[in-house]
Design brief:
Keywords: Calcium, Metal-binding, Repeat
Number of helices: 4
Protein name: EF-hand domain-containing protein
Order of helices and strands: HEHHEH
Number of domains: 1
Pfam families: S_100
Strand content: under 5%
Structural class: mainly alpha
Distance between the termini: 25 Å
Strand order of the largest sheet: 1-2
Organism: Oncorhynchus tshawytscha
Radius of gyration: 14 Å
Helix content: 55-70%
GO molecular function: calcium ion binding; calcium-dependent protein binding; transition metal ion binding
Number of strands: 2
CATH class: Mainly Alpha
CATH superfamily: EF-hand
Oligomer: single chain
Largest sheet: 2 strands, antiparallel
């Protein structure tokens, strides 16, 4: 697989690893989202209320869960933020 295909497979695998631990296998509950962020993006949550704010920002359809499309928005936004901060080669 190419690097991009590998990255896409990792995104899918990471989402699936944390989704469905409680309830729907195709979404992340707030608790699952928090666990995923604590393990995979530990520097993202600085304050106790950050997960609530993040959940509210990601949950575009208002179902109190984060589906894969909403998860990808988080990853894309963080990637763009990192790209803007990284020095260009």
């Amino acid at each position: 697989m190419s690097q991009l295909e590998t990255a896409m497979a990792i995104l899918l695998k990471t989402f699936d690893k944390y989704s469905g631990a409680e309830g729907n296998k195709g979404t992340l509950s707030k608790a699952e989202l928090k666990t995923m962020i604590e393990k995979e993006l530990p520097s993202l949550l600085k304050n106790p209320g950050d997960c609530d704010k993040l959940m509210k920002a990601l949950d575009h359809n208002g179902d109190s869960e984060v589906d894969f499309n909403e998860f990808v928005v988080l990853v894309a936004a963080l990637t763009c933020a990192c790209h803007d901060r990284c020095p260009k080669k």
